[in-house]
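User: Quick sanity check before I run a bigger batch. Here is a single chain. Can you write out its predicted 3D structure?
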Amino acid sequence: MFRVPAALLLFACTTGLAQPPGSVPAQAASANATPAPASSIPTLQAITVTGVVPGPGLWKISSGDHVMWILGVVPTLPAGIEWHSAQVEQAIAESQAVLESPGVKLKIDTNWFGKLFLLLPVYRAQRIPDGKTLADVLPPPLYTRWQLAKQRYFGDDHGIERYKPIIAALRLLREAFKQNGLRGAGEIDDTVKALAKQHGVKLVDTRTTLEIRHPRDAVKAFAAAGPDGTACLALVLDMVEKQIPDVRARANAWATGDIATLRRVPESGYRDSCKSAITGAGFARSLGIANLPMQVEEHWLGAADAALGANAQSFAILPMPELLDPDGYLAALRARGYTVASPDEQPADEAAPATSVAPASAASVH
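Assistant: Done. Predicted structure follows.
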């Protein structure tokens, strides 16, 4: 399994839509569910964790005397934090390789001029065909819920009504996070890369290369048999209406290194639903990418095998759900014979080097 942002990378690049929530440089419910009244949608206060924060401890993967330290990252962070981890910096400095996050790297078989001519078809592919709007394609109860959320987050922007459900879902997600004091976690990857370069440690690109040999045909296939996204939109609405406090709790728990809360507070189901909408759509099958999540996982595991075999110490980044999911990447590493220990399972004398604790005056919880 792989996180939704990785799954959406193909979609984002072929439609020109940025991944939500937006990264900051150095982020199946029933369609016929009863509409939530406007009064039930919570109005949240500002994110409670601010200032310099350490983030969580590191997972330890070992094979004999070879060790890999893994930093888990949640997709959404509090907007008011600055991340600094002496533990991560020392672990990177003492490593021989740093594995970047798993994902998808697109290779489009055309020059810049050809990409320019893709812009109009890409623009059209995002929109509901035949001049229809969301009112025409969504079940009435779901459309009522959408209208409430649209009014809150988009106001009088009627253009959003023309987007396909999955595009509307992703735009709603991005705007809801922004207005609730949340941001994407892209800066964590950027900081890790910068630290690797600073200490002269080899960076390993673990992304799976996906080559699009006929990009115009790919855009046409998306327009003709792209993801419907109705279930995805329903789950995003569930999250926006009721689960933002959970997203905030997970973001705060990551910032303060509270693994127990990360284990306890559930991850929203919208990620898997939206991912499945894309990889299960007809255009994905026609492009041969229906098994893309499995390809991404196997490619990362191969890179991990190589790093653990060749280096006394290495470092890696993974989505936090993959570290907490009993069927995630860590389960695959255990199945390969590696010893896996979470931060709260490691004896004090075996924990990652240098305890990273922000000064008491740096981070604050209100």
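The chain has a mean pLDDT of 75.

User: Great, the batch can go ahead then.
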